[in-house]
Write a structure and sequence with these properties.
This protein is an alpha/beta fold and 194 residues long. The protein has helices at residues 17-28, 35-38, 55-63, 78-87, 102-116, 118-121, 179-193, and strands spanning 5-8, 91-96, 124-126, 137-140, 154-158, 171-172. A 6-stranded parallel beta sheet has the order 3-2-1-4-5-6, covered by helices on one side.
Length: 194
């Protein structure tokens, strides 16, 4: 019997979307100050103080490139954390969005396969509506996930520069010494309230 279902986002939690985006941006548009994008105050890149010209089109060009999602580097400690949670008896699912791109769906599945294996591809859920997925907790870097919908899970914010304003939910990073305590105490709280 499972100790509880833990949902884990991919981009920004297991895979470093920001690092790969900035790397490619510097290649295409070296004069753009993309480093301010990495340090933006909110999740949406439109929250930057000095917007980059044609930012939406540039962003779309990069993340639509074949191979973008497969080439995302791992966030240190993430793969080890999810495999440890599974070994401890939790039902761990990677829950990610692919927008409207079939290519992103395929590449994300390939990313999971290369790093975690075939059994984890079966644990991959691709949806733009994470609030529909049942679980005890969702570890996600994006603060506006539930969008007003009721959920079965409590969100744990994965610590990033663009979500520092959020202070009403538990927060963790894989580099935190107490990341496991944060997850286990949140799961216990959710289960006690059910």
């Amino acid at each position: 019997m499972s100790k509880g279902r833990i949902l884990v986002d991919m981009d920004g939690v297991l895979a470093d979307f920001e690092l790969e985006m900035a790397h490619r941006w510097h290649i295409y548009w070296p004069d753009d100050d993309i480093d301010q994008y990495k340090q933006r105050p909110k999740f949406k890149y439109s929250s930057m103080k000095e917007p980059i010209d044609n930012i939406n089109e540039k962003f779309e060009k990069i993340w639509s490139e074949p191979g973008f999602f497969e080439s995302l580097p791992e966030i240190e400690g993430g793969i080890e954390a999810v495999t440890s949670l599974l070994d401890m008896g939790y039902d761990v699912r990677v829950v990610t969005s692919a927008g409207n791109k079939r290519q992103a769906f395929t590449e994300k599945a390939n990313w999971i396969y290369k790093r975690l294996g075939d059994n984890w591809v079966r644990r991959l859920v691709v949806t733009n509506e994470k609030h529909f997925i049942d679980g005890a907790v969702l570890i996600d870097d994006r603060p506006e996930i539930a969008r007003g919908h009721n959920t079965t899970w409590q969100q744990i914010i994965y610590d990033q520069s663009y979500n520092q304003y959020v202070n009403d939910r538990p927060r963790l990073s894989w580099s935190d010494e107490d990341w496991l305590d944060t997850i286990e105490s949140t799961v216990a709280q959710v289960q006690a309230e059910r």
